[in-house]
Amino acid sequence: MKDASTVLLLCVAAIFSMTGFSTWPALLPELQAAWGLSGKAAGAIGGSYFAGYMLAVPVLSGLTDRIDARRVYVGACLLASVGHFGFALLATDAVSACLLQAIGGAGLAGTYMPGLKALTDRVGGSRLPRYIAFYTSTFGIGAAVSYALSGWLALIDWRAAFIVGGLGPFVAIALILRGLAPVAPHGGHVPGVAAQLGALKDRAVRGYVLGYAAHCWELFGLRSWIVGLLAFSATQGSLPLAPATAAALINLVGIPASILGNEFAGRHDRRRTILAIMLASGVLAWAVGAAASWPLALLFLLLIYQVVVMADSAALTAGLVAVADPARRGAVMAVYSMAGFGAGFLSPLVAGAVLDAGGGGSSALAWMLATGSLGIWCLLAPLALRRRPDAGDSA
User: Fold this and answer.
1) Fewer beta carbons below 10 Å: N end or C end of the chain?
2) Cα–Cα distances in Å, from 221 out to 2, 113, 327, 342, 375?
3) Residue environment code for 298-337, b if the CB has 16+ CB neighbours within 10 A, otherwise e
4) Torsion sign across C-alpha atoms 261, 263, 265, 269
């Protein structure tokens, strides 16, 4: 029961730490129009969140091999709040928005993987892969809650959405400080950068790192542009829900998919399961884009797409934890996260550039091409790994 309580505490704290995660994507159509942004500029703002994460995670996650992840978590929550409050008070254009989004993303870098490290430092045994799946699937809940809150609060004022996004991390701090006892980290004394570079020498680790990068390219690109895609579709026909509310509900369906995908992968060949899921999601990216002009068809396909995109999420992370040396687990998680969120930084930017090149946000063809670009690496990953059959050894 103690292990389950620890996992539940970290899951609830993760949701509160992410209240500002989806605020920009939820408000993208409104602020893109108000600030006169191109698709590329709007994508850059969304991607800047993940750029901040990518730059901060080697330091913050790497620290958890040497100090208690609990301490890193609390400091990062404060950083996230600074980014969200700053956006509400200071953002007026693409440059200021990019900078403040990056600060918010750096805050997430000190909560998501360090939160997982806090879990693995306190919980063990045969149920650990399942607990990891529960924790990683909570990311989808946090994203969905953020979409819904931001969409509703934007009816009052868009700045209110960012202010509330900055309040959630304080609740997470209170939960962590009251409910999580300090522990000594299960890490070694290898310097952070050396440990992170050394992690990539392990072929199994490299396979999971590359797989996670392909996964995050698709997932974070979709999360950055889903409200914009739904808003376009609403101009072509009747959409039964507000775009931000629809995005929140679509994100929620991915949660059981992540958990069940990990359960299936644990009982079968993990590598083959992940590759099959990636191939299916890469194909669905194009199908979703082709349905942009038909709101009901788009909603249906987005639900299926979200399920498939999320089906390999926990399977990848649980596989990585299983093959990682416990003494360097924080460093391995840092490399893994840096690759994934680095892809998450580039993906919205590339999709926005494709949208502009294809004819802009009012073109169905442009949306098909932009959405299709999200699945490109998942389509190529199975081909690449078939040429290197041991690159993604099953855990």
Assistant:
1) N
2) 37, 20, 33, 11, 9
3) bbebbebbbbbbbbbbbbbbbbbbbbbbeebbbbbbbbbb
4) negative
Q: Which domains does the chain show, CATH number per domain?
A: 2-387 (1.20.1250.20)
The residue type of 356 is: D
Please state, in angstroms and rounded to a whole number, the distance separating the CA atoms of residues 31 and 44. Answer: 13
pLDDT given at position 268:
78
pLDDT at 87 over 70: yes
C-alpha pair distances (Å), 390 with each of 29, 202, 214: 44, 11, 18
Tens of pLDDT along 275-290?
888 899 999 999 999 9
**Dist. CA 121–CA 119, nearest whole Å:** 5
In whole angstroms, give the CA distance from residue 123 to residue 113.
15
pLDDT higher than 60, residue 147:
yes
Dist. CA 361–CA 359, nearest whole Å: 7
pLDDT at residue 181 in the model: 86
Helix residue ranges per DSSP H, 110-184: 112-122, 128-153, 158-179
Residue 74: the pLDDT is: 94
CB 318 within 8 A of CB 395: yes
In tens, the pLDDT along 344-395 reads 888 888 998 899 898 888 899 999 999 999 998 888 876 655 544 444 443 3
Whether this prediction's pTM lies above 0.85 is answered by no
Q: How many residues does the chain have?
A: 395
Indicate the DSSP class of residue 1: -
Residues 6+ apart with CB under 8 A from 281: 218, 305, 308, 309, 311, 312, 375, 378
Q: Rounded distance, CA 148 to CA 303, Å? A: 16
Greater confidence (205 vs 292) lies with 292
